[in-house]
Amino acid sequence: MAILSEYEEQPESVKTPFNAVLDSSDPLQFLQTAFEFVARETDLFKKDSVIKDVNALVRSVKEKLDADERKRKEKAVPVASNDGGVKSDNKRVKEDVSSASQSGKEPVDQKMAEKDDDNKGLRAPNKGNGLDMENYSWVQSLQEVNVTIPVPPGTKSRFVECEIKKNRIKVGLKGQPPILEGELYKSVKTDDSFWSLEDQKAIAILLTKQDQMEWWKFLVKGEPEIDTQKVEPENSKLADLDPETRSTVEKMMFDQRQKQMGKPTSDEMQKQDILKKFMAEHPEMDFSRAKIN
Q1: How does strand 122-123 pair with strand 225-226?
Q2: What is the rounded CA–CA span in Å between residue 114 and residue 120?
Q3: I need a labelling partner for 87 at 20 to 30 A (CA). Which of 37, 73, 243, 251 fits?
Q4: How far is CA 49 from CA 17, 52, 53, 55, in A?
């Protein structure tokens, strides 16, 4: 336990003491108390840039701690003799060269694949077939989209503002700029969409899709798009679908795999089979100059 008492003297400003107790097992509660104190006594949280400024401050502290930790570890490494150091360095160089020569093509292929995705402007989906953003994350199935928005621990539901419309969404905390706001990728069923507060530390939102046969490329306009060809539905989810829907989903998955490999889709294969059958039934016809799409 530690007691923090700050009294900051500033010219021509109101001097307000801040007293709070830091419990090492729950530092976030201390931060929340500090933020609430600052919000009461200053205009900081009235600025539109407050979230960006606070994030920058946290990032700066984290980077400083990481740098200090690296320096500490470097000092803790025992210094070897000159001969030993040279041999160790030579061995490390040989291992690096050997590793690079053995891996050979794989890193190149991986870089090429990443470059292709960059050129397309698409991102690989997360494990839930959605995307992890800075202030929230979302996952999806063919039927619904689930959004998770972290909030300060201890947040009460009465402080949450969540507005779900057919084509738009707006989520945030009262008195603060929205955390998530924008036009949805596709329309949703508002009567079957809702939100809840989980463990007073995250807002969970369920959006039921109107079109339950399409993967969303993004949650709201302005987000990076995901590569829907890399979406991987869970087999357990497929088993829950009715036979007709499951057949359609499996066909979509097959077509996606075929496109990734540069092979014809199921529809294209069917057309090719029909053409081959027609050609076999009409050997008297010359197809050598035929242009077939």
Answers
A1: parallel
A2: 10
A3: 73
A4: 25, 5, 6, 10
